[in-house]
Amino acid sequence: MSATKVFVARLAGCSVFDPAGDRVGKVRDVLVVYRRVDPPHVVGLIVEVPGKRRIFVSVGRITSIGAGQVITTGLVNMRRFEQRGGEVRVIAEMLGRKVLITKERIRATIEDIAIEDRGQGDWEVSQLFLRKPKTTPSPFGKGPTTFATWNEVTEDELPGESQSAEHVIAAYSDLVPADLASTLLDLPVERRLEVAEELPDDRLADVLEEMPDTERVEILSSLEDARAADVLDQMQPDDAADLLAELSDERSEALLQLMEPEEAQDVRMLLEYEPDTAGGLMTTEPVIVSADATVAEGLALIRRHELAPALGASVCVTLPPYEPPTGRFLGLVHFQRMLRYPPNERLGTLIDQQTEPVRVDASAAEVTRIMATYNLVSVPVVDDAHRLVGVVTIDDVLDHVLPDDWRSQSDTEAVGAARPRARSRRAPVTPGRTAPGRRNARGTNG
Length: 446
Fold this sequence. Notes:
alpha+beta, 6-stranded antiparallel sheet, 16 helices, 19 strands, 29% helix
């Protein structure tokens, strides 16, 4: 049965079906337009369909909202959603906004918004769920809540005061980093920066790794140096190096000085290589083991949940030391091969003799050809002394060969040729690494 009043925060993530019961997608936001006297009018939903595309579904195409699902007429425009002037997103732009309760002269925060069907499919904002300021000094306490109609409040955001993004983050908590990055890219710039400011460091790091250079530089530049350094610490070294290469020499060096020493050492090393070489594409955190390590030990290392799938597809066997740059590189052992042998088998006897490493100065085109030819998801990178310095993974290669705007292209648009790298990495101002360390739990200690 169709509901006549729905709270938007509960609507987020609900499945959207066509009349035949086939799933179209899921709700990501509600779009409204302001009116001079009456409450804002609901014009439609922003729906995420397969392929991570966000489309607009007009409220006139919605036949039912209720029981945690939305039913449409089945006729929807699959064109990618673009926000027009005058349109406002409820979750992304209204939740967390400050309003003044006119009668009580109390400022409150919008925690949720109810939309109501006034008949004939005419939906509008009917009620606001508000939280008033705290009445106790307890740091864990919250202010009382109340309901109010749109006409009982006035927007009262003070100059220079950022809109809270807490509720936006909560509504999008189920999104993987790539999808959250796409969601942020769809927001107005000011709102995007507000949401980024309130994301935890590790979550923001994951999101920045999925963003185009221009937008992630914009976000990092808006952060205080200490916070920016903390976020860079949480990023993969190759992504952090690419990001720092886009900043000025002064800001880049200032952030490197504030980063954890072992993280900064990895990034400084990567900054020494041109971005279109194996050294520029690689990550410095492969899984590294000795030849005497057993299958059981190798499987224990790659089953860790924080390890990226491409890095967990194989382990690198080297002579000591076991931190890049390692001792002499001996070879790779693929995880499928480990599964075929008993737990006590030594990994040194299972090395893949067919996979050869690439040199740090090998071109990106050469690395791409090797990975495609031998169906690899990662390829080891060695220096002149045949020491392992990192691995290039399939996601690094794809990010290099796809055009700069691949995140915003539709499924029907051509991928295009390999994108040119206009930037070149600068050598670090201070000397490079001497005694490399390991990163936090996001890393891949071998």
